[in-house]
Design goal:
Distance between the termini: 43 Å
Radius of gyration: 17 Å
CATH topology: Arc Repressor Mutant, subunit A
Order of helices and strands: EHEHHHHEEE
CATH class: Mainly Alpha
CATH superfamily: Winged helix-like DNA-binding domain superfamily/Winged helix DNA-binding domain
Helix content: 40-55%
Amino acid sequence: MKKLRKHKGSFEVKTGTVDKFFEDIKTTMRAADRGEPLEERHTLIFEDPLEMLNFLSKAKIELIKIIRAHPDSITNIAKTLKRNRAAVYRDISKMEEFGLVKLREEVNPGHGRHKIVEVVAPAFKLEAYL
């Protein structure tokens, strides 16, 4: 079983251009070349603010809040939110694909194993430029 490791650094979700992305990478690599300590950080960049807003729907933001407060199984999260389990599974799968949440297996006494959904960072920074 793979142990879940929460991100110690920040997790940013923002808009930006490809050029800005590479500029940030160059700055980071130059700092590494100088031997400066690098802060662990994770960034999800959308080129179009509408794509970011579409991805971070009200339902997904509510999911993040619920999961942060109480990591749990997809079934229990769906019950808490009074949403269809398939819809919650779809949202969580997409958020896992983009690195916002992680699934870990846990022993469920008397019932085998189940997967627990956890957020990967204690906070997310959202930033959009128009």
